[in-house]
């Protein structure tokens, strides 16, 4: 073997070792990268199939506009799932806070009181769930299921029918377009992006965020390290409820009305988006930015199927199959990355 061949072989081995080392150190990022790659592939495939009519400023801007409420729900759900919990109540809480806000405004209550009231209402339901989980040892699935029925029942108590919102300040959140060329964003989209930014800061640059990850990794170890596990576990459900209340406001502004049947099944959409974005259901690993990517993947899938003119039943089947595929691929990437360590 010549000296040149030896050098080439050594260089190749060195590059392989560097790649393996990178994957080993950043295994937690791999599912998020996979979700981002899937999103780009969806864009490319839709653009090719629709012959250049998909990737337009209008369609991409509408992706955030149409999924702003889901993005806020996914932010709150990320906190809960990172601790190894689950929150099935967020769709019903969103419906309750939305119809409550519409009712309060219809009765003449000022916006400065109605908006904090509905957000606080969502946080209170989250507090009830968190207390049940932490202090009564109720499984998160059961506790949040109880929260689901509670919130949905309260929504029907407020009103059995839709209540139109005529408050200009609420409608402004959706009707206003901040444009840059052909691109636009609404205040609801800005609120959703701010929620992501604040959540990312809290999770990665505060003691509370580090405690959330520690609990998901090993709750017993987190206790031994002296971390305040009880307060943190209750707090993540409060955050999830608060985000659901904020999503109720966004959805009410988006639709122009509150409706007690809103959000049926939306909690599953939020969970799916979070998992697609790389957050493991077992907790301890994931990123809120990944959840945002997951929401965009989920929204893009629905948009593509809508462009194709598929019936609603087929839309659900296709979305379910694609979500299952994405989750399996991401889990395989995690397993392979951990195997390289």
TrEMBL record:
Statement: the UniProt record of this protein carries the keyword Transmembrane helix: yes
Subcellular compartments: Cell membrane
Membrane topology: Multi-pass membrane protein
UniProt signal peptide: none
InterPro entries: ABC_transp_permease
Chief place of localization: membrane
Record keywords, A-Z: Cell membrane, Membrane, Transmembrane, Transmembrane helix
Transmembrane segments annotated in the record for this chain: 27-50, 62-82, 113-135, 141-163, 183-203, 234-254, 287-308, 314-334
Domain of life of the source: Bacteria
Coiled-coil regions listed in the entry: none
Name under which the protein is recorded: Sugar ABC transporter permease YjfF
């Amino acid at each position: 073997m010549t000296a040149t061949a030896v050098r080439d072989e050594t260089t190749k081995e060195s590059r392989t070792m560097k790649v393996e080392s990178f994957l080993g150190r950043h295994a937690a990022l791999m599912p998020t990268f996979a979700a981002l790659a899937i999103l780009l592939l969806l864009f490319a495939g839709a653009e090719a199939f629709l012959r250049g009519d998909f990737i337009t400023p209008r369609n991409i801007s509408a992706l955030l506009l149409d999924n702003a409420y889901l993005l806020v729900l996914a932010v709150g759900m990320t906190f809960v799932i990172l601790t190894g919990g689950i929150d099935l109540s967020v769709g019903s809480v969103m419906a309750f806070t939305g119809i409550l806000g519409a009712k309060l405004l219809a009765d003449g209550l000022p916006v400065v009181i109605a908006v904090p009231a509905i957000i606080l209402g969502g946080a209170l339901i989250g507090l009830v769930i968190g207390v049940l989980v932490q202090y009564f040892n109720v499984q998160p699935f059961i506790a949040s299921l109880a929260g689901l029925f509670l919130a949905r029942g309260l929504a029907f108590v407020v009103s059995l029918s839709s209540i139109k919102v005529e408050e200009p300040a609420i409608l402004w959140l959706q009707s206003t377009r901040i444009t840059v060329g052909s691109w636009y964003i609404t205040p609801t989209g800005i609120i959703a992006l701010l929620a992501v930014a604040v959540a990312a800061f809290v999770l990665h640059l505060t003691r509370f965020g580090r405690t959330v990850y520690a609990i998901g990794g090993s709750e017993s170890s987190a206790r031994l390290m002296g971390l305040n596990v009880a307060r943190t576990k209750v707090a993540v459900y409060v955050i999830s409820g608060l985000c659901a209340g904020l999503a109720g406001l966004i959805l009410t502004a988006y639709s122009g009305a509150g409706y007690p049947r809103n959000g049926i099944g939306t909690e599953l959409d939020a969970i799916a988006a979070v998992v697609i974005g790389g957050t493991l259901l077992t907790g301890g690993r994931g990123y809120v930015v990944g959840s945002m990517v997951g929401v965009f993947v989920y929204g893009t899938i629905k948009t593509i199927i809508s462009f194709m003119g598929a019936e609603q039943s087929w839309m659900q089947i296709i979305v379910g199959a694609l979500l299952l595929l994405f989750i399996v691929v991401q889990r395989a990437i995690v397993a392979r990355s951990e195997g390289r360590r």
